[in-house]
Amino acid sequence: MLSGAAAIAGIGATEFSKESGRSELQLSVEAVQAALADCGLSPSDVDGLTTFTMDTSSEIAVARELGIPELRFFSRINFGGGAACATVQQAAMAVATGVADVVVAYRGFNERSGARFGQVSVAAATQVNTNGLDNAWTYPFGLGTPAATVAMQARRYMHEYGATSEDFGRVAVADRRHAASNPAAFFYGRPITLAEHQASRMITDPLHLLDCCQESDGAVALVITSAERARDLAQPPAVIAAAAQGSGRDQYVMTSYYRDDVGIPEMGVVGRELWRQSRLSPAEIQTAVLYDHFTPYVLMQLEELGFCGRGEAPGFIADGAIELGGRLPINTHGGQLGEAYIHGMNGIAEAVRQVRGSSVNQVDAVENVLVTAGTGVPTSGLVLSRNGAR
Which residue, 14, 17, 44, 15, is CA-closest to 31? Predict the structure, then answer.
C-alpha cells in the first residue's frame, strides 16, 4: 500500500529571480545539493530521479554533475504543471515497491529569462505528439497563451455561478499578503489590496495582471525515501499519506471547453483518490497549497476537492477563510502569484515546511496538508502528514 510508506525527507531550492544568470542544469544541481544537505544524505545515497517531461536537464546529466554513481529508477511526467505532485507519487511508488531507496524529484528552469510559457509558443502547437495536434486547432484562433485559455474557463464560471473579478482578486490578495512576509518570495514586502488588483491592467478579459502568476527562474528539489528511514534523518519527515493523478472525461490540455462540466473534473478525480487513500476528509486538512497559476482555478479547486459546494467558493473565501487565521489558509509561502512560479514544486516544499512547523507563516497545529498540481490539464495531488496514514 502506498499510503504512509514513503516520506519527503529533504527540500532544497535556489533563489527565485527574473534572471538567474546560469543554466537550467546548474539550477537543478544546486537545488538537489541543497535538498540532500537538508536531510543529511549525499549523492551516493541517491538511486532514483524523477522530473517533468518539459524539463531540459536529463536525469543522467543531473546524476553526472552530482556524482551519483548509479540510477536504478528514472521517470518523467507529462502535462506541464500537472506533473508536480506526480513526480513525488512516482518516487513514492518506487520507494514503496523497493525499486529504489532514495529518489529525488527536481524541476529547474529559466522561465523568465529563457523560454517564457506566458507568451505565444509556436512549439506548443508543433510538438510531435497529439498535444501538439490539439493545440493546432486552437492557436490559430487566438487561444495561444495560457491566460487566453483560462479566460475562457473563467468567463463561463462567472456566467454559471455569478462569480466576479473581485472574487478572483481575493485569491491574489491572500497570496500576496503571505508572500509579503516570506523573505524567499519575489514579492517579499509587497502586499496588494483588492483595489490594486482591480486597477491592474487587463491581460485577457476577465483576467487582470494580478490574476496571473509570475514567470520565474529557479529550481526546487525534493528527497523521497521510506518513512522509516526518513525518521532517522536530519529533518522531521513529511509522510506521504496519499498521492494521486487524475484526468477527466473528454480531457484536453487547457482547452477542455466542450464537456458539460463547467469545473475541472480532473481535480475531482484527484481529490476523491486522495481522500480514499488517506482516509481523511476536507475537514481534517489544516492548510492547503492550491496551484495558483491563475486565480479562477483556485476557486474551482476548492469546490472539486470538497471544501465547499459547486459555485460556493466565492462565498467560502469572502470572509478571509484562505488567509492566515482563516479556516483554510492557502499558499502560505505566497504561491506562484507571490513567491515564484516553479511549476508547483515550490508549493510542495512549503507543504513540507508546514508539516515540519518551520514555515515563515506557520499554521497552528498542522497535522495534514493538501497540495495540488496544475489545473486545466491532467493533474495530480498529495496529502502530506505529520504522523502518516491512519
Answer: 14
pLDDT in tens, 62-79: 999 999 999 999 999 999
CA-based nearest residue to 373, from 350, 340, 345: 345
Give the global pTM.
0.97
Percent of the chain exceeding pLDDT 70 equals 99
Q: Is residue 196 part of a domain?
A: no
Q: CB burial class (10 A; 0-12, 13-18, 19+) of residue 195? A: exposed
Tell me the C-alpha distance between 373 and 375, whole Å.
Answer: 7
Q: 11-49 as b/e, with b when 16 or more CB fall inside 10 Å?
A: bbbbebeeebebebbbbbbbbbbbbbebbebebebbbbb
Cell numbers for 217, please give them: 527562474
Interatomic CA distance for residues 164 and 154, integer angstroms: 10
Quote the domain boundaries for residue 378: 6-114+214-385
CATH of the domain at 261: 3.40.47.10
Q: Report yes or no on 12 lying in a domain.
A: yes
Average pLDDT, stretch 338-360?
Answer: 98
Residue 94 has pLDDT above 90, yes or no: yes
Which residue of the set 139, 157, 297, 341 is catalytic? 341
Return the beta strands (E) in 144-237 as ranges. 202-204, 207-208, 217-226
Distance (Å, whole) CA 248 – CA 250: 6
User: Is 200 domain-assigned?
Assistant: no
- Catalytic, 188? Answer no
Is 264 domain-assigned? yes
Is residue 291 flagged as an active site residue? yes
Single out the catalytic residue among 157, 252, 291, 297. 291
In the chain, the number of structural domains is 1
